[in-house]
Amino acid sequence: MTQDELKRLVAQAAVDYVRKNAPQGSVIGVGTGSTANCFIDALAPLQGHFCGAVASSEASRERLESIGFKVFDLNEVSEIPFYVDGADEVDAGLSAIKGGGAALTREKIVAAVASRFICIADASKKVEVLGRFPLPVEVIPMAREHVARRLKALGGEPKWREGVITDNGNLILDVHGLAITDPVGLESAIDHISGVVTNGLFARRPVDLLLLSSADGVVSFV
Ligand code: 5RP
After folding, report:
1. First to last CA, the chain
2. Phi, then psi, of 186 in degrees rounded to 5
3. Which of 34, 110, 199 to mutate to test the pocket of ligand 1 (most atoms within 8 A of CB)?
4. 162-180: per-residue pLDDT in tens?
5. For ligand 1, which residues put their CB under 6 angstroms from it?
6. Are 164 and 144 in contact (CB under 8 A)?
7. Is the ipTM of this complex over 0.85?
8. Whole-number Å distance between alpha carbons of 211 and 192
């Protein structure tokens, strides 16, 4: 199977899951990226099930609206039973690296509001130790070099993702060379650097249900 077929397979599994488990008339939280796009496309027949969606990026908001979904501002919503999104890496403890699409801050906010975070990915995203995928960090522009120095002191090699401006008007530093054996500790340490908006570790609030696709089908981890 191609990677696109694996993404569509796991996206359909997530749609089947929310169809069975999300209350009628609830709001669905929707992530960002190519796997999340497959989820949005597969979600179209469920419009009657949900009163609308909250999106973790402008790109996902536009895609949801293009298939006719009402998209709420998060400030209008107090309960999101399920947030469905992809990831760049997930470990056995269901901590994840996200932000390859630069949407990490809004993703983390929507995940914080959601009761359950369902992560959808193909099996290549499951790793023993997080960090081979460079860890994205969203940074206030004037703090870029300060934050880069602090990230170096933590043992990483930050590289500015030049040309990318987040939906919040900030920059992304991608931190290479980390072997993240303490995701909760590193997430907190990076968040404490002045000028950091957020980082792509989802460890203090990890994934609740991981759906992983391979040629053998979809397997779930809790
Ligand atoms: C965007 C993300 C994505 O969920 C992550 O990058 C995975 O993307 P894809 O499904 O395209 O592999 O965190 O900020």
Report:
1. 25
2. -70, -40
3. 34
4. 999 999 999 999 999 999 9
5. 31-36, 85-88, 98-104, 107
6. no
7. yes
8. 31
Catalytic residue, chosen from 62, 79, 107, 145, is 107
The alpha carbon of 87 and the centre of ligand 1 are apart by a number of angstroms equal to 5
Tokens of 12: 């359909």
- Smallest CA separation from ligand 1 atom 8, residue: 33
Written as six digits, the tokens of 132 are: 């081979």
pLDDT tens sequence across 108-145:
999 999 999 999 999 999 999 999 999 999 999 999 99
Q: What are 188-200's pLDDT values in tens digits? A: 999 999 999 999 9
Is 62 annotated in the active site? no
User: Which stretches of 100-205 are assigned E, i.e. beta strand?
Assistant: 114-122, 135-139, 157-160, 171-176, 196-199, 201-202
Tokens of 3: 């990677």
Instruction: Tell whether the torsion through CA atoms of 45, 124, 196 and 194 is positive or negative.
Output: positive
Q: Give residue 71's identity as a one-letter amino acid code.
A: V
If we measure between CA atoms, which residue out of 141, 157, 93, 143 comes closest to residue 119?
93
Q: What pLDDT is recorded for position 40?
A: 98
Q: So what's the pLDDT on residue 45?
A: 94
